[in-house]
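HUMAN: Quick job: go over this next protein and say how the chain folds.
***
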Amino acid sequence: MVSLGPENVRIAAHAMDKADAIHQAGVILVEGGYIHPGYIQSMMKREQVTATYLGNGIAIPHGLPQDRQLIQRTGLSVLQVPHGVEWNPGEVVYLVVGIAARSDEHIGVLAKLTDVLEDEATVMRLARTRRVEDIVAALDPSRQTVPVPAAVQAQPPASMLSAGYRADVEVIGGTGLHARPASVFVALAKQFRSDIRVYHDGKTANGKSMVSMLRLGVERGGVITITADGPDAAKALESLQIAVAEGLGEEAPASDTVAEVSALPGQTAPAAPETPEAPDEPGLIRGIAAAPGIAIAPIHQLRKEAQAAIEQHAVDSKAERSDLDHAIDRAGAELEELHRTINQRAGEAEARIFLAHREFLEDPDLIEAARFRIDHSEESAAFAWRAAVEERAGELAALNDPLLAARADDLRDVGARVMRLLVRTNEGMAPLPDHQIILVAEDLSPSDTASLNPDLVKGICTALGGPNSHTAILARSLDIPAVVGCGRGVLELATGMTAVLDGSTGTVLPDPNPERLDSAQQAQGVAGSRRAAVVEAAYRPAITVDGHRVEVAANIGAVPEAGRTVEAGGEAVGLLRTEFLFQDRTDPPGEDEQFEAYKSMAEALGGLPLIVRTLDAGGDKPLPYISMAHEDNPFLGQRGIRLSFAMPDLFRSQLRAILRAASHGEIKIMFPMITSVHEFRRARRLVEEIRVELDAPEIDVGIMVEVPSSAVLADMLAREVDFFSIGTNDLTQYTLAMDRGNPALAKDADGLHPAVLRMVDQTVRAAHGEGKWVGVCGNLAADPAAAAILIGLDVDELSVGIPNIPGLKAQIRDMAYEDAKDLARRALMCEAADEVRALTAEVA
């Protein structure tokens, strides 16, 4: 922590004006080796941007953020002006606290200042004292503070109190200001130019820094004070106050949401039972129940691969900064894809974990700390990044709140993702066996857990962790039984030993005797019978009570998921995301590799339709082997069909593989990001050209409707295409001009907005007018509140994540088509998404 030494305090000074006072405070920092002389000018310029007068005779001059390269090391100076100096009209300053901060290391002194600001007598005593030690004792952030009365703790500067740019708000959502709600707050704060500060319990945080916000350790029910200083302060404060008051996207305490686990496909299970007081049996290991279910399989001990050696120093700081920036951009794209994947597989609540990771990744204080080490300590990008991450992770781990302290692991997970890209290795989780296992590990990162294949990993057992950890949440969403917090003894279990893991009771029994194994298999059989009953019902067609049929299909992104689609009762694959073949590799897949994948999936479906979306990459989803220019707005850039046209060899290779596989099943082709009739004709001509070359069977060709232009031109496109599939995720963000990856806009970027529904309605009417069918493959299809409206709009197919299939089919079988049509008509007349959702609640 930064400290204030007596050598940095000047008493009994005289200043002619504010500029002179700032200059003197800056000279102290120059003489102490903290800043280059040019930073004093930056301190002067800062005064023209925003006032640094705090109130009660204290000012904190500091430089502009873009001039931080002039800071040699973080430091503080104090200039005591006993007779005062006019700062602004009507404002007299007696203590000038100069700050040179590389990141947020100076926050401790701000907390000290907030302690004394409310006590005018203390300020005046410090303004008159002849003892340097008095000032150091009062303001040195490294010294223990005398407890401050609760009434004045965590208070913002008095100037902001008088100006009204503050708000006191209770944190009501979830279990407090943990990673996901903090990410929503930070994302919203970043939309404003003003400086945002948050005060709580004597601590101050940068409202635009994820790590800084988590350091506050705010529990549910805690009151925070938000201040804003800058050109849009009033609007910023209003928006943040409303966001916190609404829960920052957290609707219930984690103890409630943890109970919502998917015990059966498409169903929500009751709360996981508490661990019963069962009699101990030899070898039984007790942990914490994290995800329900029984797993019987051989143990596999997960060993992390050794870290690559990292050079501490580098010769080219500019190149190192470029490497770091590139790695952070790549890591951000990976997290965006993880968010989309988990969103489809498990839902938005679980997927938000990776939005929180994205905020960690983009934390300005973290990035600035790493860049500073590169520029001023001549460290390599990898060494600087690792050091910056560990410093902040250590601070989070030291928090008293276990939930907030656990976010240190999330920060390390984000740090490791960037490290893998910097050192260009696969450092991290070693490859897993190709047979069923119970995975045993010290702990799993969210990224590791999200990458597990539930067909092979039948259970998870960790030495560390808790039921509210992101690993536990993801295990439940993936329907993998899990027991966590078992202690380090589980790390001594032999790989290959059979074990029984019960995620409902929180127990693991290694090497069970024949009787115990038999009873476990019987219990597993009972659970399997219940699951089989649900799956059996899922095979029934989705026909409404008045005879209207809707096809229910699956969105998938991996070869094994084709078979799981059939098992879950899916009637087709409505969307195959082919990106899984192209990502996480250094060169593109060949035609034969793609052919084998598409062929395997078509055969696994046993004649059910397989709609293959051509590569939807580029822009926000870069590929390492494609050189692309930086784009300020990648969602409007070179992506989807545009990238395919720009890479004709890659495009032809994929189309050849799809057309070859068409002989092995009912395969259809779907193009992403089509915006005009011309684009579709161009793509379809290429399909036909290659089909003739291969003598392949004729194949249906359709498009994703995901931009407003394709919906507006639906009547023209319907004469050309064989089908439409509406991607409501992108259609929503483009129609409403809201980035769907921005957690601060998540509530407003609602696919049930009447404008989006009208786009759907327009597309369906145009398609049916030409005898073509329409599906919906975006998240809206899996939203129970939206199903009746989409069916009422005459959508022919709903394509959802595999776990959602049985529940959606059951919902359709319970509804009346005529009621759905009436609901859809009313929804189209609404003015906002919340009105539409209110309608659905009325008929639920």
In short: The radius of gyration is 30 Å. The CA atoms of residues 656 and 690 lie 7 Å apart.
